[in-house]
């Protein structure tokens, strides 16, 4: 960890009473309604919900990616820095030094004409002003750290030559290049095969231990969250309806929505059982 | 009698260099349900494209309700086949006409495949849309005004409107939220019970396949590595790849590193 970084006690990410509204007047919509969550160094926190629950939006507020014209109130603190109401410089500083994000579809976030090495070097050259040669060295070590074989050769290849799982590893290497303390993963394994998903989850767990990363993991998959996270928050319609240690929530859900979500998991589903009460989607 | 027989089916691309499907055989009884499960590159999508006639096999036969699919088909043969076999895909948005309401879409199929008109057509349309529990208001809306789950209900209704004896569903619930997926799976189970339609359910998701099918084939690199009764295969998998797939499904106490080691061991033994 670089010495210039101010170490703060307490959670790396903490939101309190976070509200996010878009639109005005009659078309105003509340996307987040009082979201509170925290994630400490070395912790994996799951944010679980269906589409429209606000889980991805919550994640985005931690890197100042709220939609244009949205009104944000409450508090989002990243390593102690308040982002609600913060200026662009402060937000950029958080993105450059503290928080990094990975997404569901790595292919949408790479330039198909840029070699892997140059892509991963981008962050280092931009935020640290490193020379091409110095960055290139660091890139090889990052690609190695995320478990990619033969990193020197790989750095010269193009995105289309890599599988989805390999490309997600590249995205993680790129996210790590600025030595973040907080990694935000938005459905980062959803598009992957199950065996590849296991490899990426193993990697994230290792990074949590070795780097003491705080990881917020957004997923719709309660089984995956229960298997991989320390704590989970269950979200519905912009509200955290339940939170607690992952296993506890999984085995003894208290909120009706959590129970409904668990019952809908294919692992528990008996399609021939009578349809529970509730409208058609 | 079987509704679908696939015998020695093979398909390769790039002048035989990429073998997508190799010597695949199985049989599905009338009213039965078969899951086809595999990861990307397993050949499950190619298999589904071969069965639906979108692509032609290099070798092997596909027999649907006693009639072999021919490479060159007449319009009449295609029409007859559509009356027997219908498909539902992952993204209903792409398979629905954006300018057509569910009622119009269903009417078109009923006219085409049942020749019904007037009051008889209206009655049949109602029956089909009732079968998929599509809310009244959604029946006269455009696809873009419907939720993902409603669109998939429309796609299923449109398939059912032809009164097929076989439904092929290719990742038909993969893009849906889990609670909506659960509703669609329950809906399919009920439709099977009510109509006796046979289903082939192609999916990457072992758990989904478990909940909806009685028979299962597991594909890996174009080949069927294991087949049998779904519950038996998932309870007592015989092939190392099936075991690997099962251990990859996340659950409490899950060790992803162990899965990675098992995967490497499996791939090494293969080489």
TrEMBL record, chain A:
<protein>
    <submittedName>
        <fullName>ABC transporter ATP-binding protein</fullName>
    </submittedName>
</protein>
<dbReference type="InterPro" id="IPR003593">
    <property type="entry name" value="AAA+_ATPase"/>
</dbReference>
<dbReference type="InterPro" id="IPR050388">
    <property type="entry name" value="ABC_Ni/Peptide_Import"/>
</dbReference>
<keyword id="KW-0067">ATP-binding</keyword>
<dbReference type="InterPro" id="IPR027417">
    <property type="entry name" value="P-loop_NTPase"/>
</dbReference>
<dbReference type="Pfam" id="PF08352">
    <property type="entry name" value="oligo_HPY"/>
</dbReference>
<dbReference type="InterPro" id="IPR017871">
    <property type="entry name" value="ABC_transporter-like_CS"/>
</dbReference>
<dbReference type="GO" id="GO:0005524">
    <property type="term" value="F:ATP binding"/>
</dbReference>
<feature type="domain" description="ABC transporter">
    <location>
        <begin position="13"/>
        <end position="262"/>
    </location>
</feature>
<keyword id="KW-0813">Transport</keyword>
<comment type="similarity">
    <text>Belongs to the ABC transporter superfamily.</text>
</comment>
<dbReference type="Pfam" id="PF00005">
    <property type="entry name" value="ABC_tran"/>
</dbReference>
<dbReference type="InterPro" id="IPR013563">
    <property type="entry name" value="Oligopep_ABC_C"/>
</dbReference>
<keyword id="KW-1003">Cell membrane</keyword>
<dbReference type="InterPro" id="IPR003439">
    <property type="entry name" value="ABC_transporter-like_ATP-bd"/>
</dbReference>
<keyword id="KW-0472">Membrane</keyword>
<keyword id="KW-0547">Nucleotide-binding</keyword>
From TrEMBL, chain B:
<dbReference type="InterPro" id="IPR003593">
    <property type="entry name" value="AAA+_ATPase"/>
</dbReference>
<dbReference type="Pfam" id="PF00005">
    <property type="entry name" value="ABC_tran"/>
</dbReference>
<dbReference type="InterPro" id="IPR013563">
    <property type="entry name" value="Oligopep_ABC_C"/>
</dbReference>
<dbReference type="InterPro" id="IPR027417">
    <property type="entry name" value="P-loop_NTPase"/>
</dbReference>
<keyword id="KW-0813">Transport</keyword>
<dbReference type="GO" id="GO:0005524">
    <property type="term" value="F:ATP binding"/>
</dbReference>
<dbReference type="InterPro" id="IPR003439">
    <property type="entry name" value="ABC_transporter-like_ATP-bd"/>
</dbReference>
<dbReference type="InterPro" id="IPR017871">
    <property type="entry name" value="ABC_transporter-like_CS"/>
</dbReference>
<dbReference type="Pfam" id="PF08352">
    <property type="entry name" value="oligo_HPY"/>
</dbReference>
<keyword id="KW-0547">Nucleotide-binding</keyword>
<dbReference type="InterPro" id="IPR050319">
    <property type="entry name" value="ABC_transp_ATP-bind"/>
</dbReference>
<keyword id="KW-0067">ATP-binding</keyword>
<protein>
    <submittedName>
        <fullName>ATP-binding cassette domain-containing protein</fullName>
    </submittedName>
</protein>
<comment type="similarity">
    <text>Belongs to the ABC transporter superfamily.</text>
</comment>
<feature type="domain" description="ABC transporter">
    <location>
        <begin position="4"/>
        <end position="246"/>
    </location>
</feature>
